Amino acid sequence: MFKNILLTILLSLLTLTQLKAQKDSTFIKEGYSFGVLPAVSFDADLGFQYGALVNIFDYGDGVRYPNYDHSLYFEASQYTAGSTLLRAYYDSPKLIKGIKTTADVTYFKDLALNFYGFNGSQAIYNASWEDTDAADYKSRVFYRHQREMFRVITNFKGHIGTKDTPFEWLGGFAFFNMKAASVDVENLNKNKSEDNKLIATDGLYDKYVGWGIIKEHEKNGGINTYLKGGLSYDTRNRLGNPSRGMWTELMLAFNPTFLSSTQSTYSRLTFVHRQYLPLSSRDNLVLAYRLGWQHKLSGDIPFYLLSHLTSSSLTSASSEGLGGAKTLRGILRNRVVSDGAVLTNVELRWKFWRTKLFKNDFYLASNYFVDMGLVTQKHKVDVSKVDDSERSLYFNQGNDKLHMSYGLGIKAAMNENFIISTDYGMALNKQDGTSGLYITLNYLF
């Protein structure tokens, strides 16, 4: 299992650091460095996952270390039932002189993507409908649907004025080709015993389509391209895990109809502020927080892009939420989806061991966090076609309530930038799920 592999890695690193611990790091890395990690896991419905990821860093002459000249990331994995992830990501401040360039190309076929409706707690979540032992059990994939995504994203960033100014301009575009459908139960039931097979029944996605809440011209997905631009203020002392400084961005995204298959243009405003406060003289203890707000300015956003979060960089294969590994840890993935929402993450980060080994710099760290999210702008939901007998089972009246989780994590890092991350979060409200374990790369922000 992937979790067992990760624990082995962490225990090995801990043993090494006990033999050769350093109080601080004056390490300078030159040339190339790379990290490799297998992707192995099991899901009762998706089957076995197998694959790997590799992140290659070029530090050049080491003058900019721990910042790099070029970073190239590849990820490929597949579940035996058919879910597939293929991703290539490039990040460099050197490709174009004076401009930081990132580019992402991703293909992601998810046979069982989480879908809980819109507007957070206004959409009722009934955990027993997924519980095979419950009297009112419906299906383990009742709150799922199938999505196939091909995505290309580019981002460009340059200083406004001299290269030493913290003020920067932002620009880029994002292209999505989305295909949405009901869960293919017949496919997921292949090679399963009779007592473990999924029940063929309408899921929440099918009901939303039937009720007209998901529009007919959106239910199967579509092509969308948006252009984005904005401003950034960045005083971080390093990229991978800053110990001081702030990073604030304001971005406008515009999706015109002539670049998309949608029937309406739409625009979004995204604001994200991150700050890193050192609590010790050697920067081994840091308080970090992130405030994020996204708001629809105009038009109609198709349902399959409501969860997308506009970003100037991607630290993982997905940039969506709220809920899950990259937004609200411990809360169900995509539990809070709306036209606009606010997000807060607060973390205490502690680097407790550091060592140098095989001409590379390693450290172990822990983090303790609280995550919060709230709908600030509702997505229009017309329930006029929902039968009165079902309305109270699926929909709440009133405004959204605060979604909150807390937890802890452990990090293992090589050369400040290849960071293996494990976070365990717990939701405070059962309407948001119970808990989640996330094994990914990089800090949350």
Contiguous uncertain segments of 5+ residues: 1-25
Beta percentage is: over 45%
What is the name of the CATH architecture?
Beta Barrel
Question: Using only CA atoms, what is the Rg?
Answer: 22 Å
Q: What's the CATH superfamily, by name?
A: membrane protein fhac: a member of the omp85/tpsb transporter family
Question: Care to describe what's here?
Answer:
With 445 residues, the protein is mainly beta. The chain has a single domain (81-441), classed as membrane protein fhac: a member of the omp85/tpsb transporter family (Porin). 8% of the residues lie in helices and 48% in strands. A 16-stranded antiparallel beta sheet has the order 1-2-3-4-5-6-7-8-9-10-11-12-13-14-15-16. A hairpin with a 2-residue loop joins strand 12 and strand 13. It is globular, with a radius of gyration of 22 Å. The two termini are 27 Å apart. Mean pLDDT is 90; it is low at 1-25.
